[in-house]
Amino acid sequence: MFFSPFISKQDTVSQIMLKVLLALVPGIALYVWYFGPAILVSITLASITALGTEALMLKLRDRPIAPFLKDNSALLTGWLLALSIPPLAPWWLIVVGTAFGIAIAKHLYGGLGNNPFNPAMIGYAVLIISFPVQMTHWLTPHGLGQVELGFIDQLGYMFAGVLPDSLRLDAITMSTPLDTLKTRLHLDEPIKQIFGLPIYGHLAGHGSEMVALGFLLGGLYLLAVRIISWHIPVAFLGTLFATASIFYLIDPAHYVAPLFHWFSGAAMLGAFFILTDPISSPTTHKGKLIFAAGAGLLTYLIRAFGGFPDGVAFATLLMNICVPLIDAYTQPKVFGRKDKADGKDGGQP
After folding, report:
1. 13 φ, ψ to 5°?
2. CA distance 103 to 89
3. Of the candidates 74, 119, 112, which has an alpha carbon nearest to the alpha carbon of residue 97?
4. Which of 60, 166, 204, 286 lies in the 20 to 30 Å Cα band around 342?
């Protein structure tokens, strides 16, 4: 027989990060199924770079290396960055973005627990601003492209920038569903005609909608094991859905249905894995709702009216700036503390 009180042992940082990494596996598996194994090479490169940069920075800061390498936080940064950039991006692009995220966005501010910005999204922002052409090397889902690269061909393209002579092509790239939609809407093509393209599936992009579903399943696992709370995913996806619904109801000829935004781009990845970063997000439940709602609104506005096809990364960074202010105004009153405005004791009935 067991008697109360029951005190459960909390997970260590290493265990929490490992569970988050495991939660990414369903999305990664579907990514490989629909787009090929190139993403695994990107993840491997990002992992090696993240661990190497982490060790170097710890050495320079005269900090113990082994304990911090084992906390898996650097690995998570590398994986999130690799999943955010094209799988056929040149190898050096992955290395540069990951190293920048770890060295500058993380260790420049004092390491894990002190970074105000999400390191993976800082790396992504630097890459898409500095190397916009290289950030367009997206793969076509299996069965939809005029040509399909085998794994060896993908490696040759990533590491040497060359394609097989038999293809007689200089490059192989594909616009994302979000980018295709934005480009063709600017050409005044009707949405019904745009969605008739082979690149689109039932809800969003063919293949990419299933990858988003994989990240959704991983996110539900994180909720089930209480690694994250419901506040950020619900507020982000809810605001994104509500904003998209308003524009869709006003003008369905120029704005897509809200489910398209849920299952396109990095919406699911952002809702469960990026915005929920405990270091760069608010500490209070109310603050998390405000933070995620702002990110959802900004994501839609950037997608619909901005210069980038997806807005999750920039929305995350913009809301990261607001976190200290959000925390300052959403902290609950301390019990027994007198309120200067009315002379009452905070927390008293």
Report:
1. -60, -40
2. 21
3. 119
4. 286
pLDDT at position 347 is 47
Instruction: Give the chain's largest Cα–Cα span.
Output: 81
Closest CA to 79 of 33, 115, 135, 124: 124
- Distance in angstroms (rounded) separating the CA atoms of residues 259 and 186: 21
The burial of 156, by beta-carbon neighbours within 10 Å (0-12 exposed, 13-18 middle, 19 or more buried), is given as middle
Q: Is residue 334 helix, strand or coil?
A: coil
Say how many C-beta atoms besides its own lie within 10 A of residue 131's C-beta: 17
- Mention every residue, 6+ apart, whose C-beta is less than 8 A from residue 101: 50, 77, 81, 119, 120, 122, 123
Per-residue confidence at 23, pLDDT binned at 50, 70, 90?
Answer: very high
What is the rounded CA–CA span in Å between residue 86 and residue 131? Answer: 12
d(C-alpha 347, C-alpha 269), whole Å: 38
The tens digit of pLDDT for each residue in 281-305 reads 999 999 999 999 999 999 999 998 9
Is the CB of residue 53 less than 8 Å from the CB of residue 241?
A: no
Per the rule left: phi > 0, alpha: psi between -120 and 50, beta: everything else, 306 is beta
Q: How far apart are CA 46 and CA 347, in angstroms?
A: 48
Could you tell me the two tokens for 200?
A: 């689109």
143 φψ region: left (φ > 0), alpha (ψ -120 to 50), beta (else): left
Alpha carbons 99 and 76: distance in angstroms, whole number:
13
3-state secondary structure of 137: strand
Structure tokens at 307: 């210069």
Would residue 11 be called left, alpha or beta, if left means φ above 0 and alpha means ψ between -120 and 50 degrees?
Answer: beta
**HSE (side-chain half, CA atoms, 13 Å) at 224:** 8
For residue 252, cis peptide bond before it (omega within 30 degrees of 0):
no
How many CA atoms lie less than 13 Å away from 217 in the CB half-sphere? 14
Tokens of 170: 């200089």
- Tell which residue, 163, 178, 243, 183, has the closest CA to residue 212: 178
DSSP state, residue 95: H
Q: Report the run of H or E that residue 151 belongs to, with start and end.
A: helix 151-160
